[in-house]
Amino acid sequence: MTTNGAARVENDDWKKSTISRKFPTYRRKPIVTNRSWLKGKQLDDEAEGLWRIYDNLYDLTDFVAKHPGGSFWLERTKGTDITEPFETHHIKGVPQSILDKYFVRKAAKPRNYTLTLKENGFYRTLKKRVAEQLKHLDYSPKRRSFLYHMGLLCATALFTLMTARHNNIIFELSAALSLAWLSIAAHNYFHQRDNWQMYTFNLTLMNFNDWRISHAISHHIYTNSLHDLEMSMFEPFLCWVPNKYIASKARRYISLLVQPLIYAGIFPLHLIQRTLRSLFAKNELYWHDAIGLTLPLAMMAVSPTTPVDALIKWARIIGTSSFIFGLIGLNASHHTPDICHDGDALREDRDWGLYQLDTIIDRGDIKKSHFMNLTHFGDHALHHLFPTLDHGILPQLQSVFLETLNEFRGELREITFWDHIIGQSKQLLRTQVNNIPPDQRNTKNYDK
Ligand code: HEM
């Protein structure tokens, strides 16, 4: 009995997060989904069924439909703490009068999340400076993002139809590549207020609304922590948390081998899972999931052979495109052993923005290309801090960013794609936490 009890205590000991008071409830469930993540968050966040920002509770029911960013963001986050998404999605700030109108009461309990957003801390200082810079920026690169995205949409349509008409591997690979790049460019848009470009993300069979939760609200805010759905959704097949209780060492070696298959399965499995859950539990499909069917239908319509032949070609395009997307996305910036993951020691200054910097290493090899940044999750650190800004204008914020970072003893790290691929594989194998805080590990000499 005693031994069992001791073992249980030891087993439960790992159930803590470095960025929150509570172990996330959704991680206690066998299946991790957007829905279970939000439900768990409602239980953990001490928001008392309302919307929580810092220690204030608001009833935004009457504001949801009026929200300039689109109703989805607030509809889905009811009953949760939205402090960080609120801070990061409004650079110029939301007039206090709007918030005051919906204030209900102070929250009874302290916030679950332990990262800070202090007025004079790194993130809010940088945000004020960026808001000032935004008044004088050259916005013409936004037009280029628009043209790149349009070009990729046309290329995807063209190469897909050419693949349907001809047996040509070059057309097929071009269709797969265009679709992968198109979806990453569409990601630039689903972070912003509702727009038509976000719908093009759904050509992959994934859904932009789903990604607004798993990526924008979960991954962007609680990066690399136990709250990050973009980590937990891949477990136990791929596990980047350095914790042997989540995935054993043996499992981690297997994950290296299955990695390519997981990449290729991202697009189709997304739709299959949501369809199955919609059939057997609660609906998780949106009307715009139908957009994903346009490519196979168009291929069947123009195919000179049978519809089945067209469908097989489309399935190959989807699998290859998903592989390219996974390769780019999962090796973009978050997973090398030098990057903070839940369990690793954090710096003493628990500023949310500095934490972001410690969970990201940028791709230095694509810095100079607008097209590559848009299609390869480039300028990732700045993108995490200001997700609603078009990727095209981020380079103009680089100097104010670096200056502020230097003042707060943060560092923007950069490595190549290849280094990320190698580092990501090493991270998959890592089970030991890093006990040295990031600011004590860094070799950079800070300006005094
Ligand atoms: C989960 C929390 C929230 C998210 C993720 C969110 C997201 C967004 C997004 C994406 C935009 C468009 C930004 C752009 O494209 O430039 C936006 C704009 C806006 N939101 Fe929110 N929002 C949230 C909460 C709120 C709340 C609580 C209020 C006020 C009660 C609010 C008021 C506004 C206003 C006034 C704008 C237009 C002005 C601006 O862009 O700064 N939002 N929001």
UniProtKB/TrEMBL annotation:
Q: What keyword terms does UniProt attach to this protein?
A: Heme, Iron, Membrane, Metal-binding, Transmembrane, Transmembrane helix
Question: Mind listing the GO biological process terms from this record?
Answer: lipid metabolic process
Indicate the segments forming the Cytochrome b5 heme-binding domain, all copies.
44-108
Span-the-membrane segments of this chain are: 146-163, 169-190, 253-273
Q: Name one GO molecular function term.
A: heme binding
Task: Cite the PANTHER family for this sequence.
Answer: CYTOCHROME B5-RELATED PROTEIN-RELATED (PTHR16740)
Question: What is the documented function of this protein?
Answer: May play a role in muscle cell metabolism.
Q: Which family, according to the similarity comment?
A: Belongs to the cytochrome b5 family.
The name of this protein is Cytochrome b5-related protein
What organism, scientifically named, is this protein from?
Stomoxys calcitrans (Stable fly)
